[in-house]
């Protein structure tokens, strides 16, 4: 079985290449996949959703990323550890603490300090979890029929050069989880039939080409979590049949053009979690049959443009978690058979559709950011599938966002417009303050307009967002919406700060005549709008520095929290949210603490003083709740920004909650706090209601009196009714002195 497996895999690879080379190009539009026979196309959301949408089950196939040979080898690798033993024992001699079934012996955790003496017809020997620290010369020489040896977890330190002498039939050798630091060249020279060699979790620091002498049939070599710092030149020379090499978790710092020159049969190569910082252009040129390559979690900053040119059969490539600075446009141009590409945790500043377009067979792709998926719309499965805001199908990823964006938009616009109307209709004693409130409502109303546009474009792109995601985020409407949201938030913050400072001066210094007049207030309000406009418009001035500042997500709001975003955009966003807004928030908090301390002191003063500032205290109490709602909105933003500076990974769903729920909440609540809860408004509303009630009563009584005149026959009664009507009218219209 093990001898045939390499040839089976190689035949499958070549057959796959031949069949895929003649496949018909996909006829489905971007963002859709075919139902097997290409006669029907469905959105990517229907793939592996548990429902047979195609009718032939094609949409429920290939649900996992099974590209490469991980599943095949994983199954075989798992089986070799599980020794399947029958009931009868054919061994005459073995230690009493061991279990024997047929010709297989298992001595696990038996306290052995050396290889025991057993019958020579043994075929499998498991000595796991004992205390065997060394293997002397010819310790297994009598056991010519041995096919499998398991020596894990023994803390083996020394293995003699002739320890495996004479084991010509050995196929599997496990030496992992030991304390081996060096292996002498030629130690495996008699293991001509060995197909599996496992050396994981040993402190081996160096290997040479001659170490593998004799391993003519070796199929699988695993040296995971060793201390290797370099690989020998042409390391596969003594292993012509090597198909799988796993060198994960070592300290390999470099590769050369000659490292894999003799590895013609290599199909799977794992090199993740090493310290490789550069890969020469010809490193993999001899690996014509390579089907899976893993270079993840290294220190690679640059990939030569033609590094993968000769890997025509490559199906799975993992480059994730490398500090790559740049991907060439033709980086993957030769990978026509590639099915899975992993670029997680990699920022791609020059990303464009041309990088991924040549890989027509690509079915799985993994990115750092969801927005990158818009550059590979032909790929069936793209991860992450959402950024917490948008998904492949919809601009707003879930029903909660879709519903609340309209609800909050309506409440925000209706509430603020109502306040503007009522403030204009009901004349206030303090006209300067009323003007400031109306201007603030205008700024908050812009947030509602922004949310209405988000809801509109969500409906427009419903079910096909991924097809237009890139165009949308780079479009002028998206940038204008981002500008509108930024203008609204900044003007609102600055206005609240101004109104707080105004109340601070009145309450803390009640007799000082430093409160701004109407003209000064108007100048301040114009300055606030000018500053807010400049803050929102600056990112348009230099696209080279700021990039697409407002087009990093579907809702076009620049809440940057990733360390690898554009330096200009991230720095500017931090300056606004942790600079301007945080400073304004701290000023507001300090002002209100000082105001309440001042109120506490004035409570002990005379009634005249209390009356002098009584109205201002009421206003300050109302504004406290306004600021409190503002704090609820901004504290999550501050926390996200601080966590991003501490390099804490933040879930993408946070952005959606902040943009749809937290940021607009004060814009929606402020109308209630500005006007509807004020004592002045309550009094005016009571007067209007009372006046309306009096008019209603008068009309009712007038109608009843008129009716009594029509139905009275006695003339005296008519006169009496008229007199009563006049008297009632006089009493209603004229106050009694």
Automatic annotation (TrEMBL):
GO terms for cellular component: plasma membrane. Keywords: Cell membrane, Disulfide bond, G-protein coupled receptor, Glycoprotein, Leucine-rich repeat, Membrane, Receptor, Repeat, Signal, Transducer, Transmembrane, Transmembrane helix. CDD domains: LDLa. Residues 1-21 form the signal peptide. Disulfide bonds join 48-63. Coiled coil: none annotated. SUPFAM superfamilies: Family A G protein-coupled receptor-like, L domain-like, LDL receptor-like module. One of its GO terms (molecular function) is G protein-coupled peptide receptor activity. Pfam families: 7tm_1, Ldl_recept_a, LRR_8. SMART domains: LDLa (SM00192), LRR_TYP (SM00369). Its main location: membrane. One of its GO terms (biological process) is adenylate cyclase-activating G protein-coupled receptor signaling pathway. It is a multi-pass membrane protein. Residues 415-674 form the G-protein coupled receptors family 1 profile domain. The chain crosses the membrane at residues 403-425, 437-459, 479-501, 522-541, 576-599, 619-642, 654-676. Receptor for relaxin. The activity of this receptor is mediated by G proteins leading to stimulation of adenylate cyclase and an increase of cAMP. May also be a receptor for Leydig insulin-like peptide (INSL3). This is Relaxin receptor 2. It comes from Ictidomys tridecemlineatus (Thirteen-lined ground squirrel). The lineage of its organism: Eukaryota, Metazoa, Chordata, Craniata, Vertebrata.
